[in-house]
Amino acid sequence: MSDPKAIFLKDASVSTADGDQRAFIRKALGGYYVNRDLQKARFRSWEKARDAASMAKWSAVNDLGNQLEKFVGNFEKNGGVVHWAQDAAEAREIILKIAADAKAKAIIKSKCMTSEEIHLNDALEKAGYGVVESDLGEFIQQLRGEAPYHFVFPCMHVKREAISELFTKHLGTAPTNSPEELTMIARRHLRQLYVDADIGISGANFLVAETGQISITENEGNARLTTALPKIHIALAGIEKVVKNLDDLAILLPMLATAGAGQPMTCYNTLYSGPRQKGECDGPEHFHLVLLDNGRTRLLADPEQRDALHCIRCGACLNVCPIFKNIGGLAYGTTYQGPIGSVITPHLRGLKQWNHLSGASSLCGACTDACPVRIDLHHHLLHNRRNAVKTNPTLFDRVFHFGFNFVIQRPKLFAFGGKVFRTTLPLLKKLPLPYLSAWLKTRDLPTPPSQSFRAQWKDQNHE
Amino acid sequence: MRISLFVPCFVDQLTPQVGLATAQVLRRLGHTVEFRSEQTCCGQPSFNSGQWDVAREGARHALKVFRGSEVVVGPSGSCVAMMRNFYPQLFKGQPEEAEANDLAQRTFEFAEFLVKKLGVTDVGAKFSHKVTYHDGCHALRELRLKEEPRQLLRAVKGLELIETEEGESCCGFGGLFSAKFPMISTAMVQVKGGALVRTGAEFVVSSDPSCLLQIGGWLSREGKPIRPLHLSQVLANEVS
After folding, report:
1. How many CB pairs under 8 A join A and B?
2. CATH code for the domain in which residue B167 is found
3. Once rounded to an integer, what is the mean pLDDT over residues A421-429?
4. How many separate domains does chain B show?
5. Do residues B160 and B207 both lie within one domain?
6. What's the pLDDT at A253?
7. Under an 8 A CB cutoff, do B54 and A397 touch?
8. Which residues of B touch A398 (CB under 8 A)?
9. What's the pLDDT at A1?
10. CB-based burial of residue B2 (10 Å sphere; 0-12 exposed, 13-18 middle, 19+ buried)?
11. Are residues B139 and B112 in the same domain?
12. Rounded-to-integer distance, Cα B220 and Cα A420, Å
């Protein structure tokens, strides 16, 4: 079964049937809502901050060519090397070549969703490199052999006991229920690996055009070690990560922390300004940046949905999404889960295969209200649905909606059809009809009245 | 004021009492209420399914029906959001663009119309029961109505309003979504319905009959004690 929609339906059926797991996710997010609201209240106006953050990203993305050129010029001036990758395959080749040229053996990584997007770990492991994730959540997911569940909180679905068992199995440590102890186990294990690694691979939260610096924001300090200790640092980032200047960064960093994790600021915020300079005693000797397109310019070319490139990957839309909370992150089958994933995956990986994610939404709009950069998320799901119909209409839908609209333009036929529906409903309920049987599996319908509204109105008002 | 009722298609066929109660409240406030019987559906099911071309055909019929009306009032945040927010998009660049924009401006959700247009919060209703309120997402986020229905409920004699955990969570209806992705839709109503039951209220009131179809359908199947009721049905109970 390789059809993404069929896999999605199957996985979502399994995950929605797991009431305990769904309750665990709701509980985990309960604390986030409290902290997020506390931190939002510290802004003089959260709504105005959203305007400013949105404008900061808009001004960079709408001038993407120039801003990228400016960024690259400054980055190279600082001694970094830039590589342009049109797609995932090119990005993997570039990174594999850097590793081969350096005769590297061990690679350490800090959190980088873009590397998930290009399936970098698989490629590196196949080529014989040892790759270790240093972000605690990603480390746990790597040991589990599972993709990140949430692009900010990769293992939020894993209970403490399961982490303890995982560590016992893979690292031989004694079982423990203490989060501090579990963190220390991972830290002790990872410490030597930073020292041994030939290459550190990171992502980038922002690329600052004005200074040519890369901004990485993190809570564990592992990105600093990943980027500072190995001789070679490779950063991998989507081209949309660029911002114009440090002033824009100053609004985006706290917005990212508050919207995404309910923090005033993420713990460590680092600006990387290139490799070790003459006279400096530490830092990587070589600093590479791989800039990835992989469908982003296609999205940029769509004026209606271009703002999806403003995304700062805070995860706020996932945290409030009732779909995400009920089906869980793994069911999406995508690198980017939740509303933003459902919006952009069709652009990155094809509308025909991934439009079902746009359909799998009640369009409640909680995501759009949560987005710190005001991406019109739930309306973009509508746009994807419309675009999918234009390019790849399915016969059943065409017939169904043609029929429906034929009827609603003919009031007499509508009234007659309604009457037939009401009077034959007891029979219809027994038939395997599309939509109706799906509804009736878990929900009742009201007992139909003997007369419709229009008939009752006519009687009562003598019209 | 001469008010043209917009009665959602499923209210017409499944819960006509909602339409009747809406008319009753508006008349009690001294307004003339008409029902243009040529009306059918706003076309939202097709619009939300991405079938904008056919949805436009259906919506064109609604434009024609309400031509010349003074105001249109519908007891559904969802259908009103379709006409207010999405008709202008659907008809953008079409010959009917101006007409669609005009209808959008003249169309109101029931609670919105009472509170914001008429300036009324006390409609002289009595309902001695514990109720909780469910915000339909279209009313809440497309029309930005949150306080209006609550103002109306607070003015009802004898009514005790209890807020719900998961207050702003979607019930999982989402039109055809509820039948295309029934397992997700059901999971959502389990969460929402569970929170509604925990309030201990006797009724869950909403200004959106489509949410009530979903919530009520699940409550009924699960045999829960709380019953669905449209806001208009609460307000229609006159103080004797």
Report:
1. 199
2. 3.40.50
3. 95
4. 2
5. yes
6. 98
7. no
8. 51
9. 54
10. exposed
11. no
12. 24
